[in-house]
Specification:
12 helices; Immunoglobulin-like; 448 residues; 6-stranded antiparallel beta sheet; DUF4832; globular; 2 domains; 24% helix; alpha/beta; DUF4874; 17 strands; DUF4832 domain-containing protein
């Protein structure tokens, strides 16, 4: 197929250097990028060891996230022993080996009996948090989100004797010292979040890696009690507010904190079946990750609804709502423009613009490289550009100075901590995105 080149505004220096850019178009390709997307749930009782060879067959293709649910109920009256800690280490090492980012949720209860299954002593809860936190601090793992604080039914921070402001603050202060720069701790409701961070800290965006998860998304207009009924003025900072006020709060917070959870089928409001309403709800929440199996009634409905391109992108017309949402969970980066400006002494400045068309953003540090390659030489030029600053629906520009050489020019983006490739959502993008070719003298169009 002949590459379609874009005329480069006749930019040449005295040595007749010319850059031929390929057409930069967004595609509808499925992107398996880290730190975003659909996840499955993997449940373990921590007193039992795992068989990695058997467990690997349960991993779901196309999902780079895994919610690892650790049942620690047998230890409700004692500390985790070395057997349990070693098993947790093995579980986390397994998911890291298979390149699955982990949403970690240790729980006492898996049957909706939070109060019955929790320790009788709150100090025991704190000790378990310290043990698990210390393990995360001292070993290599791929935990992205620490979800909940062990307590409540299903570990979802409701129906628990340990959810007073004092208890929540003590659990948070206990756990936050182990989070480091890579792990976010997520609580279940905005009101719980506000119990832990002041209004001043919120306004100053001092979020301290404290995020939200929502296991009642679209289950009702209040997301199954996630939101309240009182106006903020009457309720106060740390109580639940009306849906409108809570959604405004969540919209602001999740611009900079990851948010995800479970979608639930709703029977009380027909709007929950409208594609445009559903997508707008997820956009406001800047949803990064969703459960792929929790409520198949809701997900099957999404699969039956055709997305008619309400965002004016024809590339998604004819795709299902489920497919469209899946490809926009978290970040989706598209290179929009590229420009070359020769400077002097055989050097030039490359400038480009990247747009994030996803619902959320990148939350982990990345590395971006400009790659120049011909038959004799390959150069990788690091570019100082923080992808975490590209909010959903926005664009930022980057640039770097290069020493001119003939050959193909590409971009490569990877996660810093493990070198995992982050694919651009451009047409014909692979592990690198081909931008065009740089020539000195006569131009020869190539076939690919």
């Amino acid at each position: 197929m002949r590459i379609k080149y874009v005329s480069w505004k006749n930019i040449m220096n005295k040595n007749n250097w010319v850059f031929q850019q390929v057409e930069l178009i967004e595609s509808n390709v499925c992107l398996e990028n880290p730190g975003r997307g659909w996840y499955g749930i993997y449940t373990f009782v921590v007193q039992d060891s795992i068989n990695p060879e058997e467990l690997r067959w349960s991993l779901r293709d196309g999902e780079l996230l895994a919610l690892v649910l650790l049942d620690i109920s047998i230890y409700r009256s004692m500390q985790l022993d070395e057997n349990a800690l070693n098993n947790i280490r093995s579980i986390l090492s397994f998911f890291m080996y298979y390149k699955k980012d982990v949403i970690l949720r240790p729980v006492y209860d898996r049957e909706g009996k939070g109060r019955e299954c929790e320790p009788d002593s709150f100090e025991q809860v704190l000790e378990h948090l310290q043990q698990i936190g210390g393990l995360l601090r001292d070993m290599q793992h791929s935990v992205f989100i620490f979800q909940g604080m062990l307590v409540g039914s299903w570990g979802e921070m409701h129906d628990s004797r340990y959810l007073s402001p004092e208890c929540i603050n003590r659990m948070w202060n206990c756990m936050r010292q182990y989070l480091g720069d890579e792990i976010y701790l997520a609580v279940r409701t905005p009101a719980q979040w506000r119990t832990l961070r002041s209004e001043k800290e919120f306004r100053q965006k001092k979020y301290a890696h404290l995020a939200l998860f929502d296991d009642g998304i679209l289950g009702s207009m209040t997301h199954l009690g996630t939101f309240g009924t009182e106006l903020r003025e009457a309720a106060g900072w740390a109580q639940a507010w009306t849906r409108k006020e809570e959604m405004e709060f969540v919209n602001c917070l999740t611009e900079d904190m990851p948010c995800g959870g479970e979608v639930v089928a709703c029977t009380e409001n027909d709007r929950m079946y409208e594609a445009k309403f559903i997508v707008n709800e997820l956009k406001k929440m800047h949803i990064t990750y969703l459960d792929s199996t929790h409520d198949m009634k809701a997900l099957d409905l999404w699969k039956s609804i055709s997305w008619d391109g309400f965002d004016n992108l024809k590339i998604w017309k004819g795709y299902s709502l489920y497919e469209y949402i899946g490809e926009h969970l978290g970040y989706r980066l598209v290179v929009r423009t590229v420009e070359l400006k020769p400077i002097r002494r055989g050097r030039a400045e490359f400038m480009f613009e990247i747009e994030n068309t996803g619902f959320g953003r990148v939350f982990q540090e990345t590395e971006l490289f400009l790659i120049m390659k011909n038959r004799n030489e390959t150069r990788e030029v690091p570019i100082s550009m923080d992808m975490r600053k590209i909010q959903a629906g926005t664009r930022i520009c980057g640039k770097t100075v290069i020493k001119l050489m003939e050959g193909r020019v590409s971009l490569k983006l990877q996660r810093k901590k493990d070198g995992r490739i982050i694919h651009f959502a451009n047409k014909n993008s692979t592990d690198t995105l081909y931008l065009g070719s740089l020539h000195c003298g006569k131009i020869y169009l190539s076939e690919e």
